[in-house]
Amino acid sequence: MADAAVTAPVSGVSALDDMKRHRTYALVILTLAYTSSYLDRTIVGAVGEYIKKDLNLSDTELGLLSGFAFALFYASLGVPLAVLSDRMNRRNIVAASVTVWSVMTVFCGLATNFTQLLLARIGVGIGEAGSSPQSHSMIADMYAPHERSRALSFYALGVYFGGMLGFMIGAPLAEIWGWRPVFFVVGLPGLLIAALIYFTVREPQRGLSDGMTAFVPKVRTFAETRAALIAGFVFIWQSKACRHVVIGLTLTSFVGYGGVMWAASFLKRTHGLSGTEIGLILGPIVGLLGASGALLGGYLADRLSRTDKRWNAWVIAVAKFAAAPLILAFYLTDDFNLALVFYLPATVLGAFYLGPSFAIVQSAAPHAMRSTVSAIMLFILNLIALGLGPLAVGALSDALTPAYGTDSLRYALMCTSLINLWAAAHYVWAGTAFAGEMKAQG
Fold it and tell me: Global pTM?
């Protein structure tokens, strides 16, 4: 059964004005949920050295815990949940998801062996499957196309605030209490966020920010759901803008997840930093500079694209090309203080990509399949980037250990960072394609 939608302009301004009064609060709460998500997702990296020592794990096993075990279920379940979200209340699905991943994070702290921790991490991935695509869709319905890069860049702050809290809480507390209590500290607050979403955030009217009335929800049969899913994959492939953004975003995230998951271990092994030093130094850098870069990237994309829509993606390409040599210098420099000089601007530039990437996909996608398209994008991204990024770094580090000893992780991270140049090329192509597609839409 086809989606029923009315594409006439909204007759009044009351619904639009009401949404504008609520949307800032809703965006803040959804960003808190994303912060909790990313914190629970990456906390294994912050306390990885303590888990490795306690459970006697290899780098490959640690990479499996921090990446593939989570990503397989997170990515796979995200797509069917998003298809449901295009017909159901997205707010309720997000609230339920936050509850599940928070409880499963607490269970991680109860694990006494590798298998138990692996199963708990799978549970976290299952919970997080119902959050980001739904939030992307809600934000797109609350903010007009010329505001979306900034709004989704604000939402993307969850990545950097979550990473900051992971390093500032995880590494220091693990050094004092051990790694298990850390999972209780980071997991329990998610239950409060889930309650705030369910009781205080309103489901936005679909298509309102684009001057359209709401889509009429209809229950889909299995065949219709399958058709909607296939249509989402077909759309991403046929849209050159979305195809290049998805490839670029996946490659960038492959490098990013590997870097974040292994950052604390790298600093501990190569520069001899303690858990407290890692938390106090790396946490604020990731959080404050990463957040600044995310906001700056969204601002520049919205501003420059007013005259040339290609800049929605080109700002990312320029940032990636500029950051590449800085990252190489960071990994190759033995003096930690000098290494930070290279790392600070690289962190700002490296954070440009999320908001504009999400905005391009949401703007190009048909209103009736925004959650679905976003979930397919995240399915591809997370299965490859989150699933294989940390695992690839760990496996490469193990392979290089006979030749380089404790420096094996340094060279593994350095090699994978070069993939960002490949990603930048796709953003160059995406910018040209996006301008053409938006012009065709009128």
Answer: 0.74
